[in-house]
Specification:
Elements lengths: L9 E8 L6 E8 L2 H20 L2 H17 L1 H12 L3 H24 L6 E3 L2 E3 L2 E3 L2 E7 L3 E4 L13 H9 L3 E4 L5 H15 L3 E4 L2 H9 L5 E5 L2 H13 L6 E4 L6 E3 L1 H20 L11 E5 L2 H15 L4 E2 L3 H15 L5 E4 L7 E2 L2 E5 L16 E7 L2 H9 L4 E7 L8 H8 L2 E6 L37 E7 L19 E3 L2 E3 L8
Parallel strand pairs: 3-22, 7-8, 7-10, 8-9, 10-11, 12-13, 12-19, 13-18, 17-18, 19-20
Antiparallel strand pairs: 1-2, 3-6, 4-5, 6-21, 14-16, 15-17, 22-23
Helix pairs in contact: 1-7, 2-4, 2-6, 3-4, 3-6, 4-5, 9-10, 12-13
């Protein structure tokens, strides 16, 4: 087990329930107290020293080795994850592929090297007087705390994107496992440990999560989960005697704006795609479209009717946990009972399961809970009759991870609404659906509060920036400089006296 390595902890039994079958599995885990969390962090401190001492190519090889180990143990990992989450083998196979792809992708990022932002200014005279020799780059921040997500037991968990980015930066990691899949977390942790020793350690328990963000030697924390839980941890991170960055992905409604022209031209097509996006994975994605702004009139009526019919045909699916299913049903019922709301699809399902729900607000007034995320397969249709009405509705929405626009070629309609919507999200989609977040160099998975509390993405190449800090060296001897800042180093892009210089040969990937 990659868990505290012999530290004193309380052994407790965690009950893992298969949401699909109701089968119960008992797992003895070591629930960490504050002292044990400190010991786990001490392992991460030592791991940070080892990782940061490796050159970029050695760290890249380590990431690739972790990916290979996870792939080799894939059958066992997928089987255990399905027993705990009931997400199904095809979905979990895809998630495992994403997990190992992320690790190999970050290996590519650190081999390429531009992420360190190497910048060199030569000594010399300036209009403001003599300037010293200055050299600057980004270096590892230190041990990182990662809080695993409930809805992605692999890709946003022990070996997920946050962990991959932190390891790539050269930081040791302590993961607070999610209680919805403790056995999966343990199996993934032990698989990582088989090739990377204790570069990643795992702790369990609510109190461990609180102690982890307060641990003195933790230098940053990342979290994917509820607004309430994330806010509590963010406040703890800020109230420390030495505050640390807290990167939280918290909640998002991901509005979709459909222009009158698009509704007229392809109402059935848009409705079918939107229904599939809402229902994907039981609606348990952070990018699920939670609000659709649809024009009034016959074309909009047709679209809403098609959307309701498509959602009504979706079979119930097990929620990640019984508690999440209960919260979803309570949330749908509360919204359906609000003044002016018309329930179109009710989302009836057995306990522990969810089915899609669709509500309509004819006047577009999204007040209170109507403009808040409901985790599960619910979307709310808000109708608008003119550009100004759509702008008014959008102005009352919280910021989101994504915003989607359905437009026709040369579509000049609703310019104000389009502009207002694109100002409220970190990723703007055109004629597509927000579920699915590609791991790439250009990706941005983030937005203003309450979707996140960070200016950094949590997916893609630049997410590594969360776990780095800048350092400048002034008049340093060559022997004191990091390799990337020494005079003769030519393997990475560098900015020298203001001019960008590229590697003398392509970087080996």
């Amino acid at each position: 087990m990659a868990l505290l390595h012999g530290c004193e902890t309380t052994v407790t039994t965690v009950t893992s329930t298969n949401p699909r079958t109701g089968d119960i599995t008992h797992l003895a885990v070591r629930e960490a107290d504050a002292a044990a969390v400190d010991a786990a962090v001490a392992h991460a401190v030592a791991a940070t020293a080892r990782l940061s001492a490796l050159d970029r190519y050695q760290r890249a090889d380590l990431l690739a080795a972790v990916a290979d180990a996870l792939d080799a143990n894939g059958d066992a990992i997928v089987a255990v994850a399905d027993e705990e989450t009931a997400l199904g083998s095809p979905r979990l196979r895809g998630e495992l592929t994403r997990t190992t792809y992320q690790l190999r992708f970050f290996a590519e990022v650190i081999r390429e090297g531009s992420y360190v932002e190497a910048t060199l200014d030569s000594a010399g005279d300036t209009p403001m007087g003599p300037r010293p020799d200055l050299r600057r780059m980004l270096v590892p921040l230190g041990p990182v705390a990662v809080y695993a997500a409930s809805n992605f037991p692999l890709a946003f968990s022990v070996a997920g994107g946050d962990t991959a980015a932190a390891l790539a930066a050269g930081c040791g990691v302590v993961v607070k496992a999610h209680p919805a899949h403790p056995r999966t977390s343990e199996l993934v942790a032990s698989t990582i440990a088989s090739v990377a020793d204790d570069a990643v350690t795992v702790v369990h328990g609510f109190d461990a999560g609180l102690a982890l963000v307060a641990a003195k030697q933790v230098r940053a924390a990342s979290f994917t989960g509820s607004l309430h839980g994330g806010r509590a941890l963010a406040d703890l991170a800020a109230s420390r005697s030495e505050p640390i960055p807290f990167y939280g992905e918290l909640g998002s409604i991901n509005p979709v704006l459909i222009s009158p022209a698009a509704a007229q031209a392809r109402s059935a097509e848009i409705a079918a795609g939107l229904a599939a996006s809402v229902a994907l994975g039981g609606g348990q994605f952070c990018t699920k479209p939670g609000i659709a702004l649809v024009p009034t009139g016959e074309a909009g009526d047709n679209l809403v009717r098609e959307l309701g019919a498509a959602l009504a045909r979706v079979e119930p699916t097990p929620a990640l946990t019984a508690g999440m299913a209960s919260m979803f049903k309570t949330g749908v019922a509360a919204r359906a009972g609000m003044a002016g709301v018309i329930p179109l699809v009710t989302g009836d399902a057995a306990d522990g399961w969810t089915a899609p729900a669709l509500l309509e607000v004819p006047d577009g007034e999204l007040v209170g809970a109507l403009s808040e995320e409901c985790f599960g397969p619910l979307t709310i249709v808000a109708r608008y009759g003119a550009d100004a009405e759509a702008v008014r509705t959008i102005s009352g929405l919280p910021n989101s991870l994504t915003a989607t626009l359905f437009l026709e070629p040369n579509d000049a309609t609703i310019p104000g609404a389009r502009r207002a919507l694109t100002e409220r999200a970190g990723r703007i989609l055109y004629n597509g659906y927000p579920t699915g977040v590609a791991v790439s160099w250009a990706q941005n998975h983030g937005g203003s509060w309450p979707s996140t509390n960070s200016i950094h993405t949590s997916v893609g190449a630049s997410s590594i920036r969360r776990f780095l800090r800048p350092v400048a060296w002034q008049n340093a001897p060559q022997s004191e400089l990091p390799l990337e800042l020494q005079d003769d180093y030519v393997d990475i892009p560098r900015r020298m006296d203001g001019a960008l210089t590229l590697p003398s040969a392509p970087v080996a990937m």
